[in-house]
Amino acid sequence: MAAIISPELAQECERAKQTNPQREIPVIITISDWARRAELEEKGLRVNHSFENISAVAGSLTYAEVDAVAQLDHVERIEFDGEVTIASA
Question: Where are the domains of the chain?
């Protein structure tokens, strides 16, 4: 997978590939060109929310669609949109 895909998302994609290839994985995608965000939907992104102030969108993709979106030249980062936990010392 491309370097722009976060390690957490890469793990989720591998799990989906092994267990349910059509499972939709929640993602946050940061893009460099807001005018080209429609291309994400053309590659399969189902948008839940747009963050115009930071040029990012939240939505869901299958593991195969993650790879397709990662190939777009205006995509800077694709991250797993999951629950974050902080371990205490």
Answer: 7-80
